[in-house]
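Repro:
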Amino acid sequence: MTAGLSGRVRNAETSADAVRGDGPGWRVVAEQECRDLWLSGRGPALVFAFSLVLSVMTYLAGTNQVLNFLEQREAVNLTLQVAVAVGVLVTLVVAADAISGERERGTLESLLLTPVSRRAIVIGKMAAALSLWLATFVVSVPYLWVLGRGVSVVGLALLLGLLVGTLLAVALAALGLLISTVSSSNKVSLAVSLFVLLALFAPTQLPGGAPKGWFGDLLVRLNPVDAALHYLTAVLVTGHTWTRDLSYLLSPLFTAVLAGGVLVAAGTRIVRLHGGVSGE
């Protein structure tokens, strides 16, 4: 027990020295969290699992030798949607573990003892979770190139995937981190986050899509995941211009702003409330 306490004190002193010497607190937290994520093996394991999923998708699409121009665009679009969906999923899982996981492992108190604001802790952890999304996107590049090299759609698909996927990743990472801060345990945080993600992705898998008409369009626009994937399809497959369907990105943008704003504004009180340490 003495060794555990001294270890926590050393961690606090190390973080204090880092904050004084290396710049903003959120950046120090982000760097530490990224080291924990990638050097512990969690990040590489998730990226490897992601690459296996994309490998299967690319193989199934690439073995079809009768692709015409439109079908090849659809193959690229499908692979891009899977890349965005799975990349956002692993990002959400990491975000959902950020605070509740620290609390269960007994390391949250030592983190709160460092001279870093609660807001900086939250922002740093979110930045670390987003590093996983960027890694999965980089892994998806060669798969999209293989499928789209014959129809000059690779550049467009990569740019769309980066912009739309990052917006969606920010929205769901902020939501997962917010759930993590208020959850009583890590299991509750992960269960609630995955349930929310499943509820958001379920409408995209319905046969024939959402109901037709203005009501069906409204349902698509209100669901940030469905709206983002609809935008990708509209530009890549249907051939719409970038600006024609930008209104579909309002839902993921609103989710990112709302969840991120609540997280940054209330993160101080939430972390202190459940961290078991009274403070400023």
